[in-house]
Amino acid sequence: MRDFLIQKVKRLLIKIYMWYSKLFEKSFKDGKCDLKYLLFKKRKTKKLLVIFSAYPGEGQKARYNYVMKFRSLRTSRLYILDDFGPKEKGAYYLGADKEFYIEKAVYCLIEKVRHELGVEKANVVTCGSSKGGYAAIYFENRYNYGASISGAPQILLGDYLYIYKHRPLLEYIMGSISEENRRDLNEKMLQSIIRKKGESKISILVSSLDGMYEDHVKKLFIFAKDYNIHIDVSIQDYKKHSDIGLYFPKYAMNQFNLYFNEMDRT
Question: How many CA atoms, within 13 angstroms, populate the side-chain half-sphere of residue 24?
Answer without folding.
Answer: 17
